[in-house]
Amino acid sequence: MTIDNFNFAGKKAFVRVDFNVPLDENFNITDDTRMRAALPTLKKILADGGSIIIGSHLGRPKGATDKFSLKHIIGHLSDLLGVEVQFANDCMGEEAALKAAALQPGEVLMLENLRFYAEEEGKPRGLAEDATDEEKAAAKAAVKESQKEFTKKLASYADCYVNDAFGTAHRAHASTALIAKYFDKDHKMFGFLMEKEVAAVDKVLKDIKRPFTAIMGGSKVSSKIEIIENLLNKVDNLILTGGMTYTFVKAQGGNIGNSIVENDKLDLALEIIAKAKEKGVNLVLAVDDKIADKFANDANTKYCPVNNVPEGWMGMDIGPESMAIFTKVILESKTILWNGPTGVFEFDTFSTGSRVVGEAIGEATGNGAFSLVGGGDSVACVNKFGLADNVSYVSTGGGALLEAIEGKILPGIAAINE
Ligand code: AMP
Predict the structure, then answer these.
(1) Do residues 261 and 247 make contact, with C-beta atoms less than 8 angstroms apart?
(2) 301-305 β-sheet, strand order
(3) Residue 131 sits in which domain range?
(4) pTM (2 d.p.)
(5) High-pLDDT (> 70) share of the chain, %
(6) Residue tagged active-site, from 196, 220, 275, 408
(7) 315 in catalytic set
(8) Are residues 215 and 98 in the same domain?
């Protein structure tokens, strides 16, 4: 079933969203992108005359805590929807069931954080540090068993299931995947956001216009190794940038001063270089960088060749020559994937490289390329530089997006398609 074709009139929909929004110390939402991203789905259901039970997680709670309560976002959600959203302060229990049952067309009920229950993720909690393997296995089996009841209960609130939480689609959790079993094919579907995300991923996986360039930045090569290896089979150009640069430079015998490095990944870096050569992929690394004498926005700075960083200095962003090289590659591309900044973009002094890359992607997109930006930090970059409208698609998924591009089947997607 597709959301466009489903008439929600008189129906109760359980909608799994990703409202895992950042909150400041006073519980003000500092970025509501994820909430706004789910609005088309929620509004369509209400416009049809349906009612909604919203399920989400917030943070990584280890049990019920005020800090991770979704009650903090109810006011803003009500404003965004133009409907007074009701709240059940426990996603299980009598109250949630009664409130769900009493929902009238046009009404919305938000459930408390699903992850207050270990059953949502299906992972045991509170295990003693010295627990034996048998104890661990028993705890896991117990939570998997109680997860069935938990999932069934969530499903019992509604007539149909809508998954609009791309950010958690790579997790086989109760509300993101297992719940789908309780609805037949005609009563489960993706939300509009999920549909768009899946279509965007398909474009870089299946419908590739070449040259295809991936720009992978961020701090560490270790956290992105799988996707990098996978991309080597797909792309024409692979720009590896950000902190991981220095692992590559050191592996090739360069001097990196105090730059961030993963000393246990030097061999891996050399393997990646060799594999790129073998597969005919143009591996692009920075040639110069902007260095700092301390990790701070007000550090003293200068430019230097990337393989000659003086002792006591660290590489914090790419330099002008690298910017020119990256820009040229990007402007010649027809498909572009960007994940991760070129430097410590949170400090304005070291954000130029990321801005230049973002602008080049915007220009290439204006010339007809398809560009997909994903992962928390690159999204923060395009937002910081006001470039979100200049790229083809900004994904709300970090881990989910990368896993999808690695070609993995995401449980949240599979569960709807089954
Ligand atoms: P990741 O979470 O792996 O995508 O990495 C993003 C983080 O990498 C950002 O917070 C950047 O500040 C950081 N980063 C990028 N370049 C560097 C660098 N040269 N040195 C230290 N951190 C960096």
Answers:
(1) yes
(2) 301-305, 288-292, 314-318
(3) 3-190
(4) 0.85
(5) 100
(6) 220
(7) no
(8) no
